[in-house]
Amino acid sequence: MFKLAWRNLWRRKRRTAITVLSITIGVGLCLFYTGLGDGMYGQVISMAVRSGSGHLVLENRSYRDDQVLKHTIQASDELIRSVKAVEGLEGYSLRISAPGMVSTSYGTVGGGFDAVRPDLDKEFSLLNRNLVEGRYLESGRDMIIGTELARKLKVNIGSKVVLTAQDRDGETVQDLFRVVGTFRTRSDMMDGFYFQITLDQAREMLGLGPDDLTQVGVYLEDRHLQDEARDYLERCEPVKASGAAVVPWQEVLSDLANYIEVDTASNYIFQILLFLVILAGVLNTVLMSVMERTYEFGVMLSIGMSRMRLLLMVVVECAMLAAIGTVCGAALGWAENALLYRYPIDLSSYLPDATVGGYFMDMALQMNLTLPHFITTLALVFVMILIVGVYPAFKAARIEPVDALHSL
Amino acid sequence: MEPLVKIEGLKKTYRQGMLEVPALQGIDLKIRKGDFLAFAGPSGSGKTTLLNLVGGLMSPTEGRVLIEGQDLAELSPSALSDLRLRRIGFIFQAYNLIPVLTAYENTEFVMMLQKVDETVRREKCMGLLKTVGLEGMENRYPRELSGGQQQRVAIARAIVGEPAIVLADEPTANLDSATAAQLLDTMEMLNREKQATFIFSTHDPAVMQRAKTLVRLRDGMIESVENAACAG
Ligand SMILES: Nc1ncnc2c1ncn2[C@@H]1O[C@H](COP(=O)(O)OP(=O)(O)OP(=O)(O)O)[C@@H](O)[C@H]1O
Ligand SMILES: [Mg+2]
């Protein structure tokens, strides 16, 4: 039966090539679209995560609901060692986050800041990558601010500014900082209202102990490692002992997470439509090839081939076509992905800047197909083509030999 | 002796919308094993219809067809296709062959369906193609064969499964008279040597002459049955 089906396909090279090609292109298209989606979200998420929290955040259980300095955690050596042991760790950040006001003689702007350890954050910090002028934080009273904030306060590199904030008891405290760098992320929020200082200076200013932190940010090499890392951290003794909660970025940046969820849903709808179009194309080709062979099937039936066998034969042919097409399509999709991952198509010169859920997005089409999506897409297409192939097979098996023999 | 084919009160009416076309209006006939029988008659007399009914390709409006005592109407669809596979060989007027298969593969197809062993298949098909005069053309595709050669492949395929009956609807209609005569030689030879019963239709007087039994049809009824003197 397989031999028979295989021979039928092989002997009809043109028809087979057309069908395989249509499946290949269909699969390639599906993967292209899925990959672009993955790439876009991957970009946005990694950007958001890098400018914000980290993939996972360790913080005081009460901090999420009441973000004041009273709700800190103690970053013991054991805790940090546990974080360092996370699989796929790219880096971690020790932070104190708080609201604060920056003033110069020109004015005052209220915003928020993170106090970080420069040696830890420098590697993966989005701000470091987006420095416009000056340098990243190093020590002491260093501060980096957004270009927009700098413009409003009329400060340059080297300018002194006064930071006003509340210490852990709610008392207002002030301290002097020096602007050492400006950054531009193209996110209005970040560029206009956000700044960073060093952890040591913040602790001194805010009257916090040497181990006090509001958050430990955990940055992963691959966002899909997040759930495992979370499980691991939650089971770690030092983490349990510190009483810290392990919060995923989806909760920290809930607006973005919601946005992506909604957008993904609408994406699925589009994807299903795309799917249907592709399937209609495949159905058409398979159906045509069955119609073309009406006479041949009539001969087969009249010389004693059972309808069941004929049906099976056509289904097997279709399965082979689907298999070959899916494999070729997978190769095509993989190639697209490799190409568009390394060389994203830069559209920023054609399109206006865009933000996704408040985060700036590079206007570059980058594919970054995730393995689960790759496999599900392929499996789905394959199964759908099989299902689609059953209809022409039934049609073939229902042929009346007498009519078929009359049909020429 | 039980006849190979027994046709009793066979009627077939085609329905074409509101119109009813009576194609066969009551045929009774017994066909002996080893016969070389021709249905003759003008166009529209019901030859094709009768052959299709005997081959179980369609069901009669009235009456019945028995092959080796088995009423075709009592068979399930799958049993019927099995009967066609094992007991009946078909040759049609034209386009008998599967275009993507070679002469050899077309012949082999029936035996493949019968699940005959590969080596047996090979030996038998090659031998038979040689018998019908196609030695050396086994690997040609139908489009690379002449009409007469194609019909020889069809004959080889029809009899390779050792059926009790070979049904042939105007097998010579698309051939010139010399080629037709050669084809009939082959059929006669197979009838003689392999004891295959041939039932065919024709409106060619030259072909009718060669039949052992000649059944003349007119307007869906048997006009006459003649047995050739030598066959008596
Ligand atoms: N599928 C059909 N639908 C309606 N009428 C049909 C059909 N097939 C045959 N007929 C009619 O039945 C009658 C017998 O047809 P049949 O094909 O059996 O004749 P025939 O002897 O084979 O003719 P020919 O020598 O032209 O092949 C004719 O009147 C024909 O028009
Ligand atoms: Mg006819």
What is the approximate shape of chain A? Answer: elongated
What is the rounded distance between the termini of chain A? 27 Å
Q: State the helix count of chain A.
A: 16
Count of discrete domains of chain B: 1
Mean of residue pLDDT values of chain B:
90
State the share of residues found in helices of chain A, binned by percent.
Answer: 40-55%
Provide the low-confidence segments of chain A as ranges: none
Q: What spatial order of strands do you see in the largest sheet of chain B?
A: 6-7-8-3-9-10
User: How many structural domains in the coordinates of chain A?
Assistant: 2
Descriptive notes:
- The complex is a heterodimer of chains A (408) and B (232).
- Chain A is α+β, with helices and mostly antiparallel strands.
- Chain A folds into 2 domains: 2-47 and 257-405, no CATH class; 62-242, no CATH class.
- Helix content of chain A is 55%, strand content 22%.
- Chain A has a 6-stranded mixed β-barrel. A two-stranded antiparallel sheet of chain A has the order 2-10. In chain A, strands 13-16 form a two-stranded antiparallel ribbon.
- Chain A is elongated, with a radius of gyration of 30 Å.
- Chain B has one domain (5-231): 3-Layer(aba) Sandwich (Rossmann fold), CATH 3.40.50.
- In chain B, a hairpin with a 2-residue loop joins strand 9 and strand 10.
- The mean pLDDT of chain B is 90.
- Classes of the chains: A alpha+beta (408), B alpha/beta (232).
- Chains A and B meet through helix 1, helix 13, helix 14 and helix 16 of A and helix 2, strand 6 and helix 3 of B.
- The complex binds adenosine-5'-triphosphate (ATP) and magnesium ion (MG).
- The site of adenosine-5'-triphosphate (ATP) has 13 residues of chain B, from strand 1, strand 2 and helix 1.
